[in-house]
């Protein structure tokens, strides 16, 4: 019997596990969270998502498990809460590995984004749905992409007053992309629109947050109208009194484990074949690490990956469903692109790398200096991307501003305590 290990229990990972089981494989699923479902299926505290227990009953389920290193198909795991002590180490050597590690918020820097009270959209939703905690009493939600709508809905559910939802792209761009999108999504969008209308929350297109102001925390947010390329229209600034700002400009993949396994990337995403196979034999990838396309697309890719990892042949219906999901992802990207002129929001003292407090002015000077030319020298000279988050937050912005972040193979892909690393006991 083929042994399949699935890393990640979001829509892609759960679909991979389900279809690998159908193909007759022995399946192990692990995730850093204590419950399956990922961010998409995160439920409000006290409720449970149906169906997952039945699926995982056929698998070996490892919650609160962190993969800290990958060598080909050999996977090194720490089990237990991330803040726990003396977590036991395990090594797994499956016949096939499915990586479904997902993505996280992409946030573009702006003056004041480092202030307490400025959150990523995903963090705000996680706190609202997982803990029933509102990040503020009066909140502004801004950025790009349809994810802003469920974030606003979650905040309303836990009692926050949402000042407005701001989509950076103009109506012409958004409508042109969604016109060709999957018609089944119209109902979902309508539900969010009704929720916003019921709470009298305005939804503005072509407007962004260009500055957050405050002393000990955010007190005001300055917004402005932008053109299609996201350049600011002078004289359109408006100040909002808020105690929280939630921003998200789409998503970026989390390919660290794929890179550690030796998988080839293409434009930051893991390159896969028609059966979701990566460049490493026996290693498959599915979901947002292969391209940002939403939960339905991730699940469709996971289904194909599960069948292929188990040694089966994905059916034509599964492949067609996956291909339709990929087409929707392309339309979504066209509807909510990142405008090339967004660096115009920045000032010389704007912090870009929050971990190391590297400013835009420092990055610009280093990028223009022939001594620090090239990504590696720029990182060493400015410290951008070398802090605790290892470029996960600032990496895309630094790369776009001056090509300063590269994806390197790190033997240790996730934080591990020296005591845990030195412990000779491993199973």
Primary descriptors:
FAD/NAD(P)-binding domain; 3 domains; 22% strand; alpha/beta; 427 residues; five-stranded parallel sheet
The rounded Rg comes to 22 Å
Mean pLDDT: 89
Could you say what the CATH topology of the largest domain is called? FAD/NAD(P)-binding domain
**Tally of separate domains:** 3
Number of strands: 22
Indicate the CATH class of the largest domain.
Alpha Beta
User: First CA to last CA: what distance?
Assistant: 22 Å
Helix-residue proportion: 25-40%
Structural class: alpha/beta
| Large-scale geometry | globular
Report on the biggest sheet: 5 strands, parallel
CATH-derived architecture of the largest domain? 3-Layer(bba) Sandwich
Major beta sheet, strand line-up: 3-2-1-7-20
Name the CATH superfamily assignment of the largest domain.
FAD/NAD(P)-binding domain
Question: Could you describe the 3D structure shown?
Answer:
With 427 residues, the protein is an alpha/beta fold. It folds into three domains: 3-104 and 252-314, FAD/NAD(P)-binding domain, CATH 3.50.50.60; 107-249, FAD/NAD(P)-binding domain (3-Layer(bba) Sandwich), CATH 3.50.50; 346-402, no CATH class. Helices cover 31% and strands 22% of the residues. It is built from 13 helices and 22 strands. It has helices at 11-22, 52-56, 121-131, 148-157, 171-179, 185-198, 256-261, 294-309, 316-335, 360-368, 375-382, 395-402, 418-422, and strands spanning 3-7, 26-30, 60-62, 65-71, 74-79, 89-92, 96-99, 103-105, 118-120, 138-144, 161-167, 203-205, 207-213, 220-225, 238-241, 244-249, 251-253, 265-266, 269-270, 283-285, 351-353, 358-359. The strands form seven sheets. The protein has a five-stranded parallel beta sheet. A five-stranded parallel beta sheet has the order 9-16-10-11-12. A hairpin with a 2-residue loop joins strand 18 (265-266) and strand 19 (269-270). The longest helix is centred in the last third of the chain and has 20 residues, at 316-335. The chain is globular, with a radius of gyration of 22 Å. The model has no long low-confidence stretch (mean pLDDT 89).
